[in-house]
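Input set for joint prediction.
Command: fold jointly, output tokens.
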Amino acid sequence: MNGAMLFPWVGIVLCAMGLFAFIVHRHLLRRLLAFNVMGSGTFLVLVGLAQDGRGVDPVPQALVLTGIVVAVASTALALVIFRRWYRVSGHARLPEDV
Amino acid sequence: MIRVALAAAACTTFAFALAVALLERPVPAVDLPAAVAGTLGASGVEHPITAVLLNFRSYDTLLEIAVLLLAVVVALALHEAQPDSPDRMGLDNPLLRAVIGALVPLMLLTAGYLLWAGATRPGGAFQAGAVLAAAGVSLRLAGVALPGFEPPRLWHAGLALGLAVFLAVGTGALLAEGGFLAYPTGWAGALILAIELALTLSIGLTLLSLYRLAPPNADDPNAAVDGSARDGRHGSEPVATGRGGAASSDEDEQIGMGGDSPSRPDASAPP
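tokens >
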């Protein structure tokens, strides 16, 4: 494992941490943060794998750039929906189904 | 406890599967960096990432701006369905206004540079749009009313501009060259710059709109409980979140964030 492969390994750790927080926490804001940590881990895996000894690969970098834009937009939309839900319900979490 | 243990087990399994996939990854069948470098001369731009984003894989960027438009349309629909109280946001702080007055021209300049630099070096439409949106958000924090949001027609047109220009260029290329988004030879650079210009405006406006379309703190359901905080508020004052404590006993039920205006040391002081 050379130095360039550090990024995908860190990305895997971030993915696992994000998934754990996403499952454990019920507060919607924390879940959104966990979702973003997990997304960052995915981006790190994608970009880091592309550095595998053959120089910089622009295709995964462009994919990740597109992914970041979509992640930003979805986070903003989730925050809008979250604040509207909070406004109508007064709660920062969803009611339990079970 | 069982919940945490199960979550930990799931995450360990997930990380293990990812690690195995990373260790056992196949050798790429196509040498993509070489393919990009080989056709870079015909792409109209000199930076490989911009070339991938707006020429080789321009469908990605087209769908990306469509997703952004979709997000803001959903936020607009929610805004229509749930009317907000009048927007009273803004810190009436002369220092903040002075700093923002000095910063915003520089931010606009930076956005223009990033857009232009995207052809030859790192930069591009999203980075420029993000800087534009940041300028808009700081203006909003300072309480400066931006023109063009009322009536909303111009605003909505700006939101749709990026996708519209992208689709128009793609359809034009389809009619002229026989392939959707297949730029004619020699025109690629100019067309990419036109698309990026429209994308920058739309991305900046989309991010700013999503920020504006969240309900203001005045509509906080827990703030409505104590009416004195709501009525005794000065027009230009920052909105109190009304978390005096009486409204909700479970701390986890609180929204847990300040909300729209960032610097508000006295927000939690009971009236």
